[in-house]
Specification:
34% of the residues lie in helices and 22% in strands. By secondary structure, it is an alpha/beta fold. The strands form three sheets. Strands 1, 2, 3, 4, 5, 6, 13, 14 and 15 form a nine-stranded mixed β-sheet that branches. Strands 9-11-7-12 form a four-stranded antiparallel β-sheet, with helices on one face. It has a two-stranded antiparallel ribbon with strand order 8-10.
């Protein structure tokens, strides 16, 4: 048997699975709040486990809670082809970010079962733990420990806003496995994801062939001034940490604009103290997010911020601390895996274009260990990390069809 263009996944079954998973950890207006290692995360994991075992796969779970479901190949010595993403969401997340890639992997196995197709390489469907990094920073924590980027105990000690530790919560929900993290060997990995940007929809392309991933620096800045009354403190005597943040916000924008067209920068999270309407902020803590696919530009943006932000603080009489709280280098995905994605899109007749991933994904870490590539489908208005995130069933089907063909070509159909 050979892989032919009429071999397609069951789009209706895939969509039903996505909608069923979305019932777990519902948001307030149509999306999801299924944050990592919460009770809802545990429930979603259990449902995914049932589906995978019903499809004939066997489960492994490592000490980070990463879930691996294996469909055996015919060659006991062949390394597995991995496919997957993450099931955790933002606090106000959509139904598709991450979930499409995990359930798309499950749909590949279901389709192979329907067709009674065997592959030489085993196929493993994976759910990586804590990709979002919202409750426990940094993002891509499970795959990061797997790839040797983070120490296991360091990951366990990450705390959420309530002071709860990641490791304790993983044990509490019952999903800390015994398997050594990173012990698995991988032949190749593929990840399907919504674009989380507007390019594919704007250009009416069904498939994004991801060639590169942007590198990232997250810098946490703490400005320290002096709390004082907004009405009675003369302007010349203020030490306004809020004003410092405003000026550094402008600096971040200037740095990103100076490195166009393939660089971005913004301030996302901020905490203002004491956060009272009639008190000048005496302390502000905020994070800067710089991204670009070019290593020299990425490091240059960080260096300029670290050089110029202290001058702003000094001029305003503020103390400043800058801490790097997240980082990964730009990623170049494997040429052979990328070609498998591109060839699949072409053979199936889907419109496509090469694209650079603007967001970090588990595939970015796994790419350090094994040949890796990504498939993207459009999302409406490029909106993601938002309950209004939306894709069409046709987009989900197209992306998973391409994923299916790229994975099965790599896993090698047995005649």
């Amino acid at each position: 048997m050979t892989l032919t263009g009429n071999m397609r996944i069951n789009g209706d079954r895939l969509w039903d699975a996505i909608m069923d998973m979305a019932k777990i950890g519902p948001g307030v207006r149509g999306g999801n709040n299924r944050q990592t290692v919460t009770d809802d995360d545990a429930t979603g994991r259990a449902l995914f486990q049932k589906w995978c075992e019903d499809a004939g796969m066997t489960m492994g779970v490592d000490q980070m809670g990463n879930m691996f479901f294996r469909r055996e190949g015919t060659d006991p010595d062949a390394l597995p082809v991995y496919v997957g993403s993450h099931l955790d969401t933002q606090p106000t997340g959509g139904k598709y970010d991450g979930v499409l890639g995990v359930l798309g992997g499950l749909e590949i196995i279901r389709t192979l079962n329907d067709l009674n197709v065997k592959t030489r390489h085993p196929i493993v469907v994976v759910n990586w733990t804590n990709e979002e990094g919202t409750r426990f920073a940094p993002a891509m924590l499970g795959s990061g420990v797997f790839a040797g980027m983070h120490d296991l105990q360091w990951a366990y000690d990450r705390e959420d806003a309530e002071g709860k530790k990641f490791g304790d919560e993983l044990v509490r929900i019952g999903w800390r496995g015994d398997e050594e993290v990173g012990a698995r060997k991988i032949h190749a990995m593929f990840e399907l994801h919504i674009e989380q940007g507007p390019i594919l929809e704007a250009e009416n392309k069904e498939i994004g062939v991801v060639t590169h991933g942007q590198g990232l620096w997250w810098l946490q800045v703490t400005l320290t001034g002096k709390d004082s009354h907004t009405g009675s403190t003369p302007m010349s005597m203020r030490k306004n940490a809020g004003l410092g943040m405003a000026r550094i916000t402008e600096l971040v924008h200037e740095i990103a604009m100076a490195n166009q067209p393939e660089a971005v920068g913004a301030i996302g999270h901020c905490d203002v103290y004491p956060n009272s309407r009639n008190v000048i902020p005496g302390k502000v803590v905020f994070t800067i997010d710089f991204r670009t696919p070019h290593q020299d530009i990425l490091d240059g943006m960080k260096a300029r911020l670290e050089a110029e932000a202290p001058k702003i603080a000094k001029d305003l009489g503020l103390g400043i601390e800058i801490e790097a709280v997240g980082h990964f280098d730009p990623v170049t995905f494997d040429e052979t895996c990328v070609a498998a994605v591109r060839n699949a899109a072409e053979s199936l007749g889907y419109s496509h274009r090469d694209i650079i991933s603007g967001a970090g994904h588990d595939a970015c870490w796994v790419n350090r260990l094994a040949p890796t590539a990504m498939v993207m489908c459009p999302c409406v208005d490029g909106l993601s990390h938002n309950e209004d995130e939306e894709i069409s069933p046709a987009w989900a089907t197209a992306g998973t069809d391409v994923l299916f063909h790229a994975v099965v070509e790599t896993a090698e159909i047995v005649e």
